[in-house]
Design goal:
The complex is a heterodimer. Chain A is 0% helix and 55% strand. Chain A is built from no helices and 45 strands. In chain A, the strands form eleven sheets. In chain A, strands 1, 2, 3, 4, 5, 6, 7, 8, 11, 13, 14, 18 and 20 form a 13-stranded antiparallel β-sheet that branches. In chain A, strands 37, 38, 39, 42, 43, 44 and 45 form a seven-stranded mixed β-sheet that branches. In chain B, strands 1, 9, 12, 15 and 16 form a five-stranded antiparallel β-sheet that branches. By secondary structure, chain B is mostly beta strands. In chain B, a hairpin with a 2-residue loop joins strand 5 and strand 6. Chain B starts with a strand and ends with a strand. The chains are: A mainly beta, B mainly beta. Chains A and B meet through strand 36 and strand 40 of A and strand 4, strand 5 and strand 7 of B.
Chain lengths: 569, 237
Amino acid sequence: MRLYVESYELTATGNDHWSEYDYAQQNGPTGYFYVDDRRGETSESWYDGTGGNGEWLWHEQISAPGGGQINDSHSGTVWPPSSYPNVADGTVTMTGYGSDDYETNAGSPIIWEHCDLGVPLVDMSDTYTEHDFWNNYSYSYFTYQDHETRQAQAVIKLQTGGKAASQRQNLFVFNGSANRTVPVRDPSWHNPLLPVLQISIPFQNITVAGKALGNDGNLYLGLPDNQDVDVTPTVSGIDYYTFNLPTPQECTPTIIANGNDLSVTNPTFCVGQQIPFSLSWSSAPPNVADTIQQWTLPGEYVNERWQNYYANPEGPLQYYGSVNYRIDSTLLANAVITNCWYINTPGGTVTMWQNLHFTNGQYASIAVDGDITVYKPQVTFPFLPANIPNIIPRLTATWLELGDRNAIPTGTAEFGALILSEPPFTGAVNWTQLIRRSVTYPYSGTGGAYALDNSQFYNNANTSINVIGRSPNPRGVVSFFDNPGVADWSWYPWSITIKDDFQTYLMFQPVGDGSIWVPLGFVTWGWGATESNATLTSPSTIQPSYQSSDQFPTWMATSVNSRYQPPGN
Amino acid sequence: MKVYCLFVLWAALLPVSVLSQNTNLNPVYLFATTNADNPTLEATNMLALGPYYPAFITKEMLRTNSFECHIQVSDQVPTSGNKAMLAPPVCWIYTYNFTTNYIACLRVPIQTICQVALLDKDGKQVQKTHSGEKFGRAFSEDEVRHWFKNWNNSHESMFISIIPNGSPPYGTPPYDIPTEIGFFALKDIFDLKENGEYELHVQLILTQAGKDSAGKLHFPRVALPETIAKVRIIVAK
């Protein structure tokens, strides 16, 4: 950020006629006559980085009984290139009257002012006559006329700074003031820099960047990075005033994502990792009454956990089914995003807009963004074994089942997946299996819906995704085994038909506080068969196949039906 | 009591053996393979039983010894769903399979396939806890048979399939993925009282299943070479 004078320009002209007659009326002494005509022109200009020039012309003609005199002067000033506020002194060159002794060094010409004065500034005449009764004569007659024009303007600008191509909007807190300048004529001297009175101008009448100051003199502006903004204070209806505008307080917002400042880093987060987002300021904005804001998060994420429930008149709400996740857009209007979990790559640009309401009644908006990258562990499926053995419906002594529990391993569902992560994202994986079962009485199906197969986590122990062996990449292999079926079919004189469809979700949870289980993908598989007269008919299978997905498994009910018994001999 | 593990060294195969004297197992290496890499290995006269490639089923089991035990001690704990199963530090036990074939062993309790000892800086064995005293007592063949017949878990195979990594260093396919065999918490096994550097010795004894020509089940066991890791332990009370 840089507040600076971009330019200062001044033009002024002045001429005056000053005459005095001093003569005898009637019997007085010889008359005395004195005339003074003066003309002056001044121009100055200075530009940031370029420097400037000044010129002063002076013509004076004096007529008097003792002889007249004409004085002409010219001076030129050159200010070398320099940048505000380090304005380099200028060098003055003078010719003509007075050039035998003048100051060759000129300081900064800049005055923080606005002036637009036309002619005439002063036009007055006066006659003074004194009568000498004793000698019976009168003398002294005096007139004065002065015509001045003056235009001056300092242009104040603010370079907001920031990284190249940054779209960030910062908050700038200005505190300005201005004084009306009232020239006061001093007829004894003719100076382009007129003596003045300074009268304070109410803050509300002062405008900066098109916005009036508050009643406390403060102005809050949200300005984007890499802008050169004209912040010259202006006062409507007043043609001559000076102003003051100290360097504003710059409040730079940044997004903090899980402790990472997005203005300095592009962090990579893992799916399932809890990522709180908040706004941080380089300097806290003063006098904030309240704020409203809106976050925009890119890509695939969830920010709210929910679960179905029913009311229990005698107790607390009864929750059932899967714990689910979704996006609650109303939470994006909170100042802090407490919960956010990404469920898929690639991330993107996080933006936050905030409108601040200040105690002086003003509003200002800022916008800030930053990039995040989302990492999702890679899955190789099938991995163990590399080729999934065919699943085969069987009719054994007491079971209508998938696979043969008396011969290992023949036809059971068995597969594994390799999960390859990258540092530092360690974690755990497990399966969550949903079953949709259709089966003949007296067995129970799932009513056409997918239900949770036994428990949320299919394997008793999670598979650790950790740095093991000689590779720095966290990895692990999660296995799956199932032998679904129904028992004791021989008890029923009617035929038994079963059809199972499975969705076996591969769930991953990264290490870290607040992280959640997120899907990496799911395996679909199934089987069906009919037992009729102790014979297996109509066998059907859907071989396990995997697809990457970020869809969470959802269920309303839980089914505990599958069973497996070891082979005997 | 809290136990922290601050310093972990990867497992290494060191010549000093503590545990091999504790087992009467004949150090044979008996795993199913159709790989002809080791043509001099003797036939076992058993047929493979386990989740191998279909091509292996009922094929004769040959001997191989391309296995290695790795242990890794860390503060990362095993979890079941959202719950920690053990308190840190935890010793994770893995097996490298340097063949190119999937090999399987029985998923018998870790207590029965793992012999452990912890030596202090003077080389003295740290006293075991009550649970630790039971740790490392291998199943007898009858116990294995009983376990095998009564396995009743339709959601978990009774076999651990050991991932083939190919020949060292990992050949084709170059997976570099050891197979997790199990884990235990150090403080569950050893009566830890003093901070310091220790040597953790682990010997893995894998159990397989096979059928002889008469159809009778056999459960041959294999003791892998002893593995040692240096561990720095801080005991906080």
